[in-house]
Specification:
30 helices, 67% helix, elongated, nucleus, cytoplasm
Amino acid sequence: MTAFSREDIARLEAAAAVLLASPAHVTAEQRKEAEALFVNLQTNKFTCSECQILMEATNDSFVLFEISKLLGVSILREWKVMNSVSIENILTYILQYITERSELANFVRSELCRCCAKIFKRGILDEHFQSEAVLISKVDKLLSGQDLTMQVLGCDLMEATAAEFSSYWRITDVGITWDFHIRAKREFEKSALRNLFKLSLKTLNDLISHPALSSQHGLTLCGKFLHFAETILSWNFSSQLLPPSLSFHFDVAEATALRPPATYKDIFLHESFLPLFFEIHRKVRFNESLCTISLNCLIMLASLMGEVLTKQETVLGDNPPVKYLSAFMSNTTSLFSGGPLPGETSGLCTIIYKLITFHHISSLFHADRSVLQQFLSFLSHYSQSLTSTGIRLALVEDDYELIHSVSRLFESWLALLRGAARIQLSSDLLEPTFQIYSCFLKAVLSSPFGMREKLCSEDTIKDDINEQDDRVAYSNVLVPLGGFGSFAASQSFSVLFEILATLLTKFFSFLSSGMNEEVVNDWREDMHWILLIIGHTLASEDGDGSCQISPEVFDYCEDMVKNGSTDPSRSDGFLSLCVSGPSSVPGSVGVDPFIRITGLVLLWNVLDHRILGEYGINAVSPELMRSSIWCIRRLVAALSDCEQPEAPNDNNAQYSPMLSKEGEASSKIVKFALHRCFGAIQKFPAERK
């Protein structure tokens, strides 16, 4: 087909109208004929010249789209017989065609940009066509002017090129193999992608100081360049050896990291690089769509690692990781010092999580001292603020959206604690850690221990079999919280004991003076939460169910013995007294702090078991009973896991809280545990939780 009549064009346009028409206005036969016409069009081997003639002869968007696809295939088919001048002329024609037709549909415009991208990809391994030089020249020319329309086209061309080099396809009759795509992508990453990234950064830098940024067109342009930056920061670099399906992995999940090759070091470590992205976010954070893209960029930058942050031994005093983390922490603290906007909460928490957990913790602590202190202060205060808000929404309104963000912050802070312990900086984090821990206590407990809002009676007593236990629903928060309590054991243990003793004393008063349902429901909610917190603070549990006492708790208990505050010989008697179920909270002077909390938990289980046996299932809370049994099982298992010291009377021997196998308390606890479990099964035969 070498010539086209007006009738040929009219038939294509009519077929396009049929395909786009409502089914009510065309018959199935008409649609089938129209589809056959375009299928036949795609099977014909048109030349590039013929495609250009068709493009000039019609303004129908659908027809132009189909011809644009034909043009891309034609270029690849004729590549071997075309010289570099002819190829560049086609590029010039396509770009000029786009710029001269402002009314061109977006999907046609995108397909034409993709044609250009195919040319760049096909020529990147071809010596007779300087693909990279032509690409950079065309893009630079489009971006260097002050015409925003041309800059948009330049960005569209960059995005199409990046998408093309990250995609894998095969056309048998043009000689494109799978291996070609891999080699082309690797070659593209060496220099072309890097240069495109630099051009986009230059344009973004010009945009943030341009008055047009406040206009709708300026925001659109900024969004396009931000999206391209996000593409680069999410790029699946060949050195990562990831599957091709992850080439455009925009998911900013915790496992995703940015690992550019060493050739990109001058970009990422430039002193103006990070401030640029933070300044952009400062400008666009009130625009919901741009804010999301900008946050994604910051999230990926927080995970930067690999060759670009490798220390150069030849440069004295050079420490890229420390410099990068210092700059990132400084900019983060400055930008979010007043707190994030509602739509930024999740993104900010992910930024903090990646910044702390994706880098060597020693690099973080070797950052500028004042910057580090400001960042830790900001993180501590924000963690407390978000905890209060997130827990309130979850308890009162059943809105768990912020709980995941709280867990990210808690996991980040726990990573700081573990790192600080290795480099002897634990004392700096002791007070803020206990403040975060106390904030959670206040959020879940009612007055006088906390500030939990009054819950409806049906909320406190409901026990839907399909509803997750709080122990499961809040596990991502409770586990790191337990680490906080262990780290600050010298402060948290006394608070936990005081709250638990006060709650038990209040319960004894219920038994003697009667019970108000509303008060009892609040009390049960408090008891439920304090048991969950105690269980996670005093012991940790492995996947196989084995429980251990943390090293920090061991050290704290040992220090109490060494300074004469506690006497290990009193532990067995105190536990025996608690399991006998006294009518008041027993005295615990000189008793190991771990043992005395365990004793009170044991005492409550005894009281709860008695009430179940005497008054039946209506007198107890199944949820509280589950928490009680779970907590005492965890504590007793941890105490039983400890080994007997070889020389308990030796001042140099290491003390550890434990249950003596020969002690009176051990046998009593075993007997009670059997009665407790079988009693619960007998009274709640249908209980499945």
